[in-house]
Amino acid sequence: MPTASNSTKLKATDVLDSRPAIFGRTVTSTFRKMFSFKHQPPGNLRTGMIPPIVFGSLILNIPKLLKLRSYLKKERKQHPADDVRILFYSDNLDETNGIANNLRNVIPYMRAHGMHAFLAGNAFNTRPCGVVENSYCLLLPRLFSMEQLGYANSELAIPRIGPVLRLLKRYPVDLIEFETPSPGAWLVCFCAKVAGIKVFSHYRTDVPTYTKTLVKAKWMFHFVLWLMKVFYGMTKPVVSPCKDYADILTSQLKIPANQVQILPRGLPLEKFSPDLRGKGTWEKYSDSANRKVRFSFIGRISKEKNLEFLNGVWKKFAAKHNDVELMYVGYGWYLEEIKKFFEGDNSVHFAGEQGGETLASLYADSDFFLFPSVTDTFGNVVVEAMSTGTPAIVSNYGGPHDIVMDEAAGRILPIDEDAWLNALEECRRIYLEEPATYAKMRETAHERSLKYTMESSTKAQFEFFRKLKRDAYGL
């Protein structure tokens, strides 16, 4: 079990994190304080600091990496060929988002079932040092960090390599899976290649589309697209959660089709149940007792989720009916703008960031779940909503429409205002006038969510990991 407590050198007055606590995350150990550059604001030109830091860190550590390579080669020969040890690396673990939430559920499940899985990323800039959370999630001390351009409350970061090398010697791994093509991932990828560790990647974030949505400079989009081609070219094979993004990997990022692997994702569905409906949770965040039809958006409140579009649709829909209600559940940089947009509108309520049974109950209390995003490669929240029996209305792009499948469990729509208005009208009518049809939709939604269990996804993943290990090391 990775810990860093033997290197702890903190004063009693030190605060581990100046941010509000995140639900379900507990610091169990800390790294010692280490030097880091001052956290930087966003800026196109400031990103020019990243390559020198990445390559400088790599060059300075080449002797240690070559020594680690020799050690791992000898150690691997003494380890059972079918026993795969894997490190999942992601730079966005120290915030609330779908990737972080999914990984923080998957890795404990794998470890509880005898699989040697580890999770690592960067500590957020609000921490004075790196930490270990829940005894398995390593948030490494950072060397450099800056705000991500166009994406408040998220950052680009580069870890210190020293702690990484010590941990890899203490806890050797056979594979490293990269979840995001961030600066830290580039550095760890280069280091892994020098150390002789097989790397591959998971296409969890539609970075080019995010960039096009959030950043005005056109040259930045083309630059990011070129970087993605290089990164995913270095980290083949690439795992995709759905066919849409498998096609994007081959057409836009030029990954050979035989180097793209579609693998299912799993969620802890036992936390979500239709039985949580009607327990009074919704009423804690809504004072509109006369509103009979409940819609919700649950997730990160940010512009790339296409919430500007949803806000416009809802304004027109709610203007026609005094019995409909929309609940936003979550937190993000766009939240205050939405609150201002709906100021004085009693059809919209905000429950804030939630977790545990409260979150599951808000899903269950929703009559319909709205998710207009066109940038999600999967859609954890769609599965969670459907697992509580709530039909989902999603866009026809990306992973969510694969989950919903057809109108038996919700609606799949183009990003067209009239199409969404008509769908909301139809859903309201079904709920109010066709209870049997609505009950069947809830039943079908729940049934379809069950294909995304932890058991089925982790079994498929580890079969894939074992093949990767055999092919990489000739075992």
Got a strand count? 17
Under CATH, the topology of the largest domain can be stated as Rossmann fold
In CATH, what is the class of the largest domain? Alpha Beta
The N- and C-terminal alpha carbons lie at a distance of 26 Å
Structural class: alpha/beta
- By CATH, the superfamily of the largest domain comes out as Glycogen Phosphorylase B
- % residues in beta strands: 15-25%
* Order of the strands making up the biggest sheet: 1-4-5-3-2-8-9-10-11
How many domains would you count in the coordinates?
Answer: 2
What can you tell me about this protein's structure?
With 475 residues, the chain is an alpha/beta fold. The protein has 2 domains: 5-266 and 454-473, 3-Layer(aba) Sandwich (Rossmann fold); 269-452, Glycogen Phosphorylase B (Rossmann fold). It has helices spanning 50-77, 98-112, 161-170, 183-194, 207-214, 218-234, 243-251, 307-320, 335-341, 356-365, 380-387, 400-404, 417-433, 435-449, 454-473, and strands at residues 27-30, 85-89, 116-122, 131-133, 137-140, 142-148, 151-159, 175-178, 198-202, 238-240, 260-262, 293-298, 324-329, 348-352, 368-371, 392-395, 410-413. It has a 9-stranded mixed beta sheet with strand order 1-4-5-3-2-8-9-10-11, with helices on both faces. A 6-stranded parallel beta sheet has the order 14-13-12-15-16-17, with helices on both faces. The chain has a two-stranded antiparallel ribbon with strand order 6-7. Helix 2 links the parallel strand 2 and strand 3. The chain is globular. The relative contact order is 0.11.
